[in-house]
Each structure stands twice: as C-alpha cells, then as structure tokens.
Amino acid sequence: MSLAGTPAVNTAARSARSGRLPLTWLGVAPFFVFVGLFLLLPTGIIAAGSLGDKDGHLTLSNFTELQQAYIIKSFLNSAVISIASALVGALAGALSAYAVATGNPRGTLRRIVTSASGVFAQFGGVTLVFAFLAAIGPVGLLRVLLQDHGVDIFPNGVWLYDMSGLTLIYMYFQIPLMVLVFLPALDGIRPQWREATESLGGTTWHYWRYVAGPLLAPAFLGCTLLLFANAFSAYATAAVLLTQGGVILPLQISNLFTSETGQAQPGLAKALALAMIAIVTIVMLLYTLLQRRTSRWLR
Amino acid sequence: MKFASFTRHVGVAAMAFLVVAACGGTSGGGNASCVAKSAKSVTECGGMDALVAAAKAEGKLNIIATPPDWANYGASIDAFAAKYGIKITSANPNGSSQEEVDAIKNLAGTSSAPDVVDVGLSVALANTALFANYKVATWNDIPDSQKEATGLWWQDYGGNMGVGYDPSKIPGGSISSIQDLLGSGFKSKVALAGDPTKSNQALNGVLMASLANGGSVTDVSKGVDFFHSLKAAGNYVPIIGTAATVKAGTTPVVFEWDYLSSSHGKDVSGWKIFEPTGALLANYYTQAINKEAPHPAAARLWEEYLFSDDGQNNWLKGGARPVRQAAMEKSGKLDAAAAAKLPKVTGTPVFPTADQQTAAGTYVKAHWSSAVG
Amino acid sequence: MSRSRRIKLQVFRGVVFLIMGLFFLGPIAAMFEFSTRGNSVIAPRTLEAWTNIIKTPDLVDAIIASLELAAITSIAMLVLLLPTMVWVRLRLPALYRVVEFLCLLPLTIPAIALVVGLFPISRWMRINLSDSILMLSFFYLVLVLPYSYRALDAGLAALDIRTLSEAARSLGAGWATVMTRVIVPNMSSAILNASLLAVAVVLGEYTFANLLTYENLQVAIAYVGLVSAGTSIAVAVASLLFAFVLLMVLSFVARPRQRGARAEKTLAPVQLVPPAAGTR
Hints:
heterotrimer; A: mainly alpha; globular; B: D-Maltodextrin-Binding Protein, domain 2; 2 domains; 14 helices; 10 strands
C-alpha cells in the first residue's frame, strides 16, 4: 500500500535512476508536451492578456482592480457555494458509492448507476435549471402536488432562486461526479481487512476509524478537491438562475468577456481567471498538507 | 514516427493551401468583373447578375448569432438559400453582439469566420475597423441617422421594449400601466430576459421601466428603483425568461423587445404585449460586413436580399419594424397585414444613443446587485 | 458477514437508492411532462416536440461527429494518462503533485476563459492542419483530464503498484506486459469510470464547440431546440437518454476484463509474499 519499497529496492532504483535519468524523464515527456501546448500555452496567453488594458497598453491596473468590493463579494459567494456543494456532494456521493460498491460488481444495478452518474455529472446549464423549475419551481409538478396536500415548500419566498437553490442544483452533478471518481477507491477495499479487524476483536466503528477510513481518506480528500474545483468554475447554471449581476466569480468573468452593452473588459476578465487559478492552487496546497497528515497511516 | 507523419501532414496542408490560393486567384480574376471583396456597391460589382454569379460560385454563407425565430430571420434564411442555392451556416445562435465581433477576430483566416454580423449599435461603433464599406441598392431609403456615411454599418430592424404577458396567469387579464406589476397578483411572476449588467435587452428593460416611472433616457435610477420595489414586493423573478420558462408558467410576465415577445404566441395562446404610453424605448440592430469575409460576394448578396422588399417584409412578419418601413409605406410595398399586427403605440419612441446606453450600463452595473440581490 | 449486518446493509442500500432515485429522476420526469404539453392549458398532450427532433437532417452528422470525438478523446486520455501516472508513481514520485496539479488546472479556469486562450491555437490549427471537427479532440482531452485523472488515481491508490510491477519484472515481464496484463486488469473499474467520464464530457460539451463554430451534438441540439419551447426540452431529454444508452453499452464492453480482474484481485495479496524458492 505504500509508495516506498524496501531499502534494497530503493537504493537499486535510485542508482538506476541517476544512470538512466534522461530515459526516465522521457516516460513523462508526451504528457508534459501535450499539457504544455494545450493547457500551459493558453494559460500563458490569458496571463499575457491580463497585462493589457482596452487599448493594448501594458498595465497592472487589472490586478489592482481585483481588490474592488464587488469582486471580493463575488469571490466570497463562489467560495461558500463551492465549499458547501463540495462537502455535501462528497458525503452524499461517498455514501451512494458505498451503496453501489457493496453490490454485485457485475450486476445491472451497478451498470445503471455508473452510466447514469456519467450522464448527470455533465448535466448543467439552462436545461438543468429548467428541470428543477419544472419539478420544484413555483409552478413545478412536485411543488403543486405538495401544495395540494397542504405542504408549502416555499413558505418564505422562493429560495430556489437564491444561493441555497443554486447549491441544491449543483448537487445534481456533484453527487454523480463523486460516485464515479470515488468508486474505484471503494472497489479497492479487500474483504480480508474486515475479516482481520473482526478476528482481532474490532467492531464496525473500529474498522472504519482505524482501517478503511484512513486508507480511503487520501482518495476522499482528492475527490472533494475535484468537486470544489468543479463547483468553483461552474457558471452556465448560475448564469440562468442568478441575474443579479456577477454574483459568483465565473459569472463576473463571463460578463466581462461578453458584455452586450459595450462594457467588455477582457483584460480584467483574464486577471480574474488568473486569480481563480491562484485560489485553487492555494486550496490544493492546503489539501496536500492535509493529505500528508492523513496518509501517515500508510507508511 | 509521430514527427514524420506530422511533417507530412503539414507539408500536404501547405501544398493544398498554395494550390487553393492559386486557384482562388485565377477564378477571382476570370469571373465576370466582380471582385466582391472590394466592391462598395452592386454597381461596382458589375450589376446584380454578376454579384449573384459570384455568390453562387462561393456557394456558402456564414452568419452568426441569428436564431431563426428572432424577428422571423428563419424565413429570410430559408428563402435566400432556396432562391440562390447558397448554403447558410448559422453559428452560435444565442451569442451576444460582443461574441459576434470576437468571432471575426478569433476565426480570421479560417473558412468559418462570420461573413456578416448583426449587432447592437455600441458594439458596431467600437469595431468599425473590422467592417467593409458597402452600400446596399436601397441605401437611400435608410434614414441618415441610421447609417454610417461611408457604408461601414447600417441599421436593419428594431422595435420597442414591451412587457409581454400571459393574460390567463395575471389578475384582470390585462396590464394597463406599469404600476400594475407591483400588485399582489403578480407575486413571483415578473422577469427580465437577461442580466442587465450583461445583456443589452435587459438593460433596455430597466431603462424603459425608468421612462415609465418618471425617469429619462439619461436617468436610469428610477428603473433600478422600480425593480427594487418589485423585488421587495416579492414579484420579481431573477431567472432569465426564455420560451421554456414562459410556456411552463414560471415567468408569465417578461420585459422583452416586442418582436421577440411576439414569438411566445406559438407556445402560449393569447400572449399579449403591453407598451406603456410615454415610455416607448426603441432600439434598432445594426448590420455590417466582415472586411475579411471568407465569402464576400455571398455576404453582399445576403445584404441585398435583407434590404430588398422581401427581406424587409420578412422582418415585419416577425413583429419587428424594418428600417425601410417609411419608404416602403410610401411605395406601397409594405406588407399591410403584418404591419397591422404590430403593437399599437401612441407617442414618439425614444432612441437612446450609444453614450446614453453606456452611461446607463455603468449605473446599473454599480447598483443592480444591491437593488435586487 | 453476520446476518444482522447484512440486513442493515441492505436497508442502507435501499434507502440510499430510493432517495437518490427520486432526487435524480424527479426533474427528468418533470422535463418529460413539460415536453408533452400543448400550447395552452386546455390543449391536449402532444408528442409534436419529439417528432420535431426526427425532422432535423443535420442531427445525424452531429451525432456521428460527437461519437467520433468521444472515442478519440477517451482512447487518447487512457494512452496519455495511464502510462504517465504509473511511471510517475514508480520512477518519479517527486512529480506526483505536479501532475496532480496540472490535471486539476483545466477545471480551475472557467471554460469561457480557457476558450479565449485556446482561440489562437485553434486558429493556427484550422489554417495549417485541418478544418475538421475532430481537431476539437485536442481541447476535449484537456477538459477531460481532471475527471479522468481523479478516477484513475483512486484506482491506482488501491494497488501496490511498486510491488506488483517489480514482482512481474522479476518474473521476466517487459513494461508492456506489466501495463497490459498486471496493472490494467486490476484497474478495470477505474479505467471504465475514467472512460465513462470522458465520453460523457465530450457528449455534453457545448461551450468550446459553439464558440469555435463547430457543430457537435450539443450545438445541433441547441439549434433544434430553437423551434419551440417543448422541443428544446424534448431534445435535451433525448440527448440524456442517448448518452445513458451509450454509456451502458460501453460498460458492457468492459465486462470480459472484469472476470480476469476478480481473479487478479484475490491473487494480488498473495504476490506480496516473495515467490518461494523453486518457483523461479
């Protein structure tokens, strides 16, 4: 289970590595070339664009603009929604994945759930918002049904149009995404571990707290990080639901790029995109620190 | 192995590019006398027949951000394609004006770049460097205030901002004043067709509300205040009103251009449009030809069609007011039945200038989220 | 497993599936109901919205293009990611976080900003390489990286790659054999899920194709949807069903490997013990 091998193997690998260094790096060359061309180069183009103003002069004004109150507010809104939907989605998704993993690995139910998860993980935008409106909107099927039976789900106004509504709608793609990316980790649980725990006198609690939990923690954290980034950069759904003007960061970026009223500020939009990258980088660093602590069990 | 096949492909592509360029050169010189790219009018192109021949030789036309149900564009697209046998590729139907000019820049040199654009005035004014000079045959019918003197851009159709509504979903079945919308029977029913900090249409919706509440085209604050009151009364729905939400009944009252609002009639029988007296906010869209259009002859022919009587009447049938309306009324070529279906308006419409729109946009951007957030 | 635990587990699974089923199928049912409405409260139910889909000629071309893109992207993803991830774990562990970060990067940039950075590259490719829609697969591969990386990583984390590969190598296997006969069969669930995600991403992708003016499935669907409100929803439900059926078929394709995987899984712990003398 650990990344370190025996000492003998390590020294052998190390000496082999230093001698064959160029060849070793060749193994990852295709990946880095591809990523360099199609990911780092566009990011560089965006970064270059953020250093210019509307007329193309070199300036840092886009970055100083980032301190404006409305941008800070968008960032906070984005952070809250992303963290909330990531945590709830991760928990709900992990539980659902567990329900799937404990079933027949070649059964039809598993196939249906994984295929449906694949479809829903990518479902978003105008149609998703409409689906929720059609179901639990003010004149939605389910809402009217409940109203006829005396239950009003909108006693204090339609919360579906707020951030809480957006978070609920985000669950629709966060949970399936979690199921798909976390399932392989659950599949790696060996029945022998459970048997070993029981033979040592442990209960279910002991099993999860000391055996399966710590072993699954790195994968769980990694998947939660993915969900966070997914929610953080999602904007098509919010664009339809929240028209109060750039409530979350991706909406601000999209507004700044495609303004119809001639107010487009592509430089600022690019600076915002870089800011988003910086934020996720910081989150990733925190996640790495957290990982290192939890994976101490693996050594 | 990968590199060798890559260079092979690049080599073949380069060869193909040179051959096509050479062919293009010879055909351009040998065909009639129409060098469409630099033609500033039909006469410079050698007459309509030469233009048609050149366009047919190109065989394709790229348009952008042109939904078929937007002012009945679909009828013009179908008629043009049938009449001249030119295949029209319509990209990014729901795109914004900014996306249209961005596409010109981002796709420059490829065969998918837009040939013509139909944008808001402010976007047109900011991007004249991308456009070609061209004056359609019916140039003189277009009012001077609605075209650029050298033919860089000219306006095409427009309408007034209205409040479209489903009579069966509101108390009383009709709206007679904008203050009605603040009533208790309109809870969670009133929507805009976009985000006013981003969408031109939604911004003009707020501007119209300002006009109807004692503001003016230079003072949009009354409009923002009106929507704030709507939100406080619980009547404002923050989602974007679309054909689907209208049909579902989620947004039975929508602030929209009247010609767009009329298309809801096919989903909701009895759909009506209310335009407040004394608060007529008008807006016309603007046509321009891409200077580096991949199909310059087809682009110019398309413009000729749109500004012919047929093209103008197609827009009229879509509930929009074509720019040549006055001239066509005089010559009797206007489709009277379609003209009769336009919403009845009393009073003179106000046309905000580009600067006024920008100023309104800046104010709304700064105050919108606190007003309706 | 004790009987009471088995019952508790089944109850847990039943409750989870019930709640999830309602939550996910409810909105779909509502969409379907809407798509069959007539154009006024008293008008009868109609399937007109659905028949409008069949009347569209361009849809078939768009479907084929999207299917080709999905196949190319998911195969390219596996070929690019899996060897790289295994190699990093075995030989270059210092690069692990770098690769992880790079694979998360596409998700941190909103699509609408990323496409701005990709425009110049796309333009160059269109003019110099090919105008075909299949050029999109380069960009889709980037989009798919975060999801597929996470699925593959979760699968790799569950294996002891180092011991497995060294045991196989000490038995005389070359790297190709190690990959295809030792690692891949043990990761069938991760590989399947990574591919499912890749296919789903490609089938559901709209922004890139739309702004780069290519006509893929979602762009064609959006265009069909402009006919009427009911059609726009009907066509969305149809595309979900189509993707679902496709993914189900894909999951059956992966079946033969799973039988081998089951055997490998029970064998793998045994390989942790060094081979006894005399088996070599």
